[in-house]
Amino acid sequence: MSQNQPKLVAFSSLFPSKAQPTAGLFIRERMFRVGQQLPLVVVSPKPWFPLQGLIRLFRPHFRPPVEPVEQQQDFEVYQPRFLSVPGLAKSLDGILMALSLYFFMRRLRQRFQFDIIDAHFGYPDGYAAVLLGRWLKLPVTITLRGTEVRHSQDASLRPYLIKALISADRIFSVSDSLRRLALEQGTAPAKAKVVANGVHADKFFPADRHEMRQKFNLSDNAQVLITVGGLVERKGFHRVIEVLPALRERHPDLHYLIVGGASAEGDWSEQLKQQVADLGLQDCVHFLGTMPPEKLRQPLSAADVFVLSSRNEGWANVLLEAMACGLPVVATDVGGNAEVVPAENLGTIVPFDDQAALQQALDHALSQQWQGDEIIAYARDNGWDKRVALLTENFTQLQHEVSANDSAVSQMGKH
């Protein structure tokens, strides 16, 4: 790495840890690839409240304890805590995150002379980052990932989101729909850029279908749907389960694989299992639990169709991962889903919360002969190399702009 390359702090409260190994995998995948090109450390602020240990007596997965620093794939991941009152005063999270981390960031800068704070999510991370950037006199970039849609509609949070978007030096969005949202909130068009996530083609590719069917106790003649994601309301597993009885009338040997578990958003596993029981679907709905990324291609390769009936997304990278394993996609028309699945030979986009349309699209997908090679080729064409090159170019350009401005100010001071 060159001495003139900018040093980055990737700043995100959502990031994998030993306590929550599946949290924010898409951020780690992106930023560790950038870190192969530019010097990088990660700062992942963790919410803390003096009595949260008591809350864990009733909710065991609530804010699990983490180590102050972890070493992940040769990168340092710092996990300082910030004051956050559970369930209350979310409008204070941004300022409390910044205040709690100010001295930590100063000490970190003495050890690792970082040039740019690269925040992920507009609020609270982005807002906290622009405050820290102002106090430390450093440029800040923010990557929008989908929560900004909800925050832009929340009267208590929208002002802080707007402040973050306007104050940041660069806004990256994982989809064009999020870029348009940023512009609607007052972001200057020149500093808003789309840099989508990519797919790890060396990790996601078809495994032997017969072997994978055997592994998950599925017959070769079965028709198999699959969804991968956190078991939360937003992901819409319940909407898929709801249409299964009608689909089974036309596809008697239909199965549905659910891969995922509790996440930072919550845990709907009991509600989903109760829904399955109420509909008498225990023989065809299979809860596989969480899986590490390197094993996800196994259930994907056992399936016929990937379905994502979510209420909100930024750029659902899991769609590309499924397509890299040869699966067509049925997904709701939210966030960047239509950008990930732009053609009919890749799948179908349906209106959100239109159960009739979802059922029809799944019936069509299960009845059609898909060209898996075309789907795989499209996914592989959306690999990480182009994305990482664009990010590296923007970070380097931003550093040069800041250096040029500093030089100009210095020269003015001499006259």
CATH architecture of the largest domain: 3-Layer(aba) Sandwich
Q: Looking at CATH, which topology of the largest domain would you report?
A: Rossmann fold
Helix content: 40-55%
Q: Strands across the major sheet, in which order? A: 4-5-2-1-7-8-9-10
Low-pLDDT stretches: none
Number of helices: 16
Strand runs, count: 16
Overall mean confidence score, pLDDT: 92
Judging from the principal axes of the Cα atoms, what is the shape? globular
Biggest sheet details: 8 strands, mixed
- The CATH homologous superfamily of the largest domain is termed Glycogen Phosphorylase B
The helix-and-strand class reads alpha/beta
The share of residues in extended strands comes to 15-25%
Number of domains: 2
> What is the distance, rounded to the nearest whole angstrom, between the alpha carbons of the first and last residues?
36 Å
Radius of gyration: 22 Å
CATH class (first level) name of the largest domain: Alpha Beta
Task: Write a brief caption for the model.
The chain is an alpha/beta fold and 415 residues long.
Description:
This protein starts with 7 loop residues before the first strand and ends with a helix. Strands 4-5-2-1-7-8-9-10 form an 8-stranded mixed β-sheet, sandwiched between helices. The chain has a 6-stranded parallel β-sheet with strand order 13-12-11-14-15-16, with helices on both faces. Strands 3-6 form a two-stranded parallel sheet. The chain folds into 2 domains: 8-198 and 384-414, 3-Layer(aba) Sandwich (Rossmann fold); 209-380, 3-Layer(aba) Sandwich (Rossmann fold). Helices cover 43% and strands 16% of the residues. With 415 residues, the protein is an alpha/beta fold. The chain has helices spanning 25-35, 52-58, 93-111, 122-136, 147-152, 158-167, 176-184, 209-215, 237-250, 269-278, 297-302, 317-324, 337-340, 355-367, 372-380, 384-414, and strands spanning 8-11, 40-43, 46-48, 69-72, 75-78, 81-83, 116-120, 140-144, 170-173, 192-194, 223-228, 254-259, 285-289, 305-308, 329-332, 347-350. It contains 16 helices and 16 strands. Helix 3 crosses helix 4 and helix 12 (317-324) crosses helix 15 (372-380).
